Amino acid sequence: MECPILAKFRLIKKSTSRKQIILYTVNMHQSLNELLTHSCTKFSEQIAFTNMGHNLSYRDLEHKSRIFAAFLQQQLQCKPGDRLAIMLPNTLQYPIAMFGALRAGLIVVNVNPLYTSHELQQQLQDSGATTIVVLANFANTVAQILTKTKIKNIIITELGDLLAFPKSIIINNIVKYIKKLVPKISIKQYYKFNAVLKNQDNYTELQITKDNLAFLQYTGGTTGIAKGAMLTHGNILANIEQITHALKNIIVVGNEIIITALPLYHIFSLTINCLSFVQLGAKNILITNPKDLNSFVKVLVKNKFTAITGVNTLFNALLKHENFKKIDFSAMHLAIGGGMALQKETMDQWQQQTHCPLLEGYGLTECSPVICINPLNATRGIGVGKPVMNTKIRLQDGELLVQGPQVMQSYWHNQEQTDLVIDSDGWLHTGDIATIDANGFVHIVDRKKDLIIVSGFNVYPSEIEQLLL
After folding, report:
1. Helix 93-103 to helix 58-70 angle, to the nearest 10 degrees?
2. What is the largest CA-CA distance in the chain?
3. Nearest partner of 214 among 368, 42, 423, 50, judged by Cα
4. CA angle 333, 271, 83 (to 5 degrees)
5. What angle (nearest 5°) sits at the alpha carbon of residue 310, between those of residues 406 and 358?
6. E strand or H helix at 268, and its extent?
7. Are 11 and 357 in contact (CB under 8 A)?
8. pLDDT band, very low/low/confident/very high, at 7 (cuts 50, 70, 90)
9. Residue 429 belongs to what domain range?
C-alpha cells in the first residue's frame, strides 16, 4: 500500500515556563553529515534514540554510522551517488543505516517494509538501488524479485540485534520461533547487520555539499504510480531550519523527548522526528509496532515526553485505551498528526484530555515535506497555516503553487512527470485546490485530481487500472 503524499499534520502546543534556549541555525552546515557530526559532538553523552529499552547515545550513533559507512565504502565498494534501499520499521538499525549511507555519499531510498513484491520490485527497479538493508521478517519479499533488480548487496538484521544480551537473543527467538514472524531466509548470500558493525575498515570522509542528493523519497505525487522525489541535502537542511524557526519559541535544544510512532521511512517522520530532532539534540523514542497498543501505552506511561507524532486512528485508539489516563502529559508541548486529517472529535477529546490546543500544518513529499505551519498562538479553524520562512505560494486556477528551498529537484529519471508539476518558472503545482484568506492563512479545499483514501493511504485510479489489465 502506498504512503500518502499529503503530509498534513497538526501541532499541539502547551505553554511552558522553562527557560528557552536559542536555536542554532543549520545554515552553517553544508550537508546532513555535518549536521549529524555537530549534534553528535555537542550532545555526545545524551541519548539520541531508544527502542525496546535499549539506548543509542549520540556518541554511539556517530561511531556506528561511521563503521557502517566504512563497510559500504571498503567492503561493498559502494560509490558516491549509488542508491541504498532501507526496508526497516522503527528500530535502532534505521538511523545507523541511514546516516551511514549518507556518510558514504550514497542516496537513501526509503522502502515500506509491508510492500508487496510487486511494489518493491517497481521501486527498486526505478531507483536502481544496488544495496538493501532489510529486516529478516521481510527478506523473502526481496528474494522474490531479486533477479529483476540491480541489487548486489543485501544486509539483513533481526529485530533484537542491537539490544543488550540476553534480551537480544530472547527477542529474536520469540519473533522467529514462537511468533513465527521470520520465515526461513531463501537468500543464499547476504551480510548480517551485527557483523557489519564489527567491521574495522577506515572510513573515508567525503566532501558532501547541499547540492548532493540525499534521498529518493517515493510518492504517488499528483498522478498515481510512485515516483522518486529527488531531495538534496540542501532541500532537507532548508526544511529543518524552516521547521525549527516556526517552533523556536517552544522547542528547547537538548531537552526534547519525542515519541516516534510514525514510520521513519515516511518523509514526515524522517524530516521532523528524525532529522529535525537530531539537530535539536533530542531523545527519540522509537515505536516499532504502534498497532500493539498495549505495549505502546506502556512506553508512554513509562516515559515523560515533550512531543509525539501519529495519525488520527492512532490518537483515537490511544484516547480509548483503558490506561490512557495513566500517561503523564505535563511535559508535552508538541503533538503532530500526519498522513490523514485529524477528525474534530479526536482533536477535541485530545485537547480535553491533554490540555493542549491543536494547530494544523500542510506539506508534500516533494517539499521535504513542510510548506505551511500555523502560528503557535493560532486559534482553531484558520486552515493549515501560513507558509514557513523563505517559502512563496500563489493560486493558479484555484490550485496551490509553491516555491522554496525545500522543493525537490525533480522526479528521478522522469522528466515528463516533473514537467507536469514544476513549471518553467520553478513553481511546484501541488495538485491541491486551496484558498488564501485576507490574513494569509491557507485553506485546503480539495484535490485537483481524483483519488481514493483507504485507512490513510492514497489509492490511485491508475494503480487499480493496471491491476485489472
Report:
1. 60
2. 63
3. 368
4. 160
5. 80
6. helix 267-268
7. no
8. very low
9. 9-14+213-468
Give the pLDDT of residue 338: 65
Residues 91 and 133 in one domain: yes
CB 210 within 8 A of CB 233: yes
- Local confidence band at 91 (pLDDT 50, 70, 90 cut-offs): very high
pTM for this entry: 0.90
Residues 267 and 142 in one domain: no
Residue with cell 529543518: 240
| CA 19/CA 216 separation, integer angstroms | 39
How many domains in the chain? Answer: 2
Q: What is the grid cell recorded at 108?
A: 537513501
Q: Give the three cell numbers for residue 379.
A: 486559534
In angstroms, the CA 126 to CA 217 distance is 12
Do both 154 and 228 map to the same domain? no
* C-alpha cell belonging to residue 127: 531507483
pLDDT digits (tens, 9 = 90+) for 58-86: 999 999 999 999 999 999 999 999 999 99
- Taking only the tens place, the pLDDT of each residue in 411-425 is 999 999 999 999 999
What mean pLDDT comes out for the span 19-45?
80
CA distance 51 to 65: 17
Residue 450 and residue 420 share a domain: yes
Q: 119 is written with which cell numbers?
A: 511494489
d(CA 304, CA 187): 42
For 141-149, the CB contacts below 8 A with 24+ separation are 141/115, 141/116, 141/117, 142/87, 142/187, 143/185, 143/186, 143/187, 144/117, 145/117, 145/120, 145/121, 146/187, 148/121, 149/121, 149/124, 149/125
**β-strand 107-110 against 153-157: which pairing, if any?**
unpaired
Burial per residue of 79-100, b for 16 or more beta-carbon CB atoms within 10 angstroms, e otherwise? eeebbbbbbbbbbbbbbbbbbb
- Reading phi first (left if > 0) and then psi (alpha if -120 to 50, else beta), residue 447 is in beta
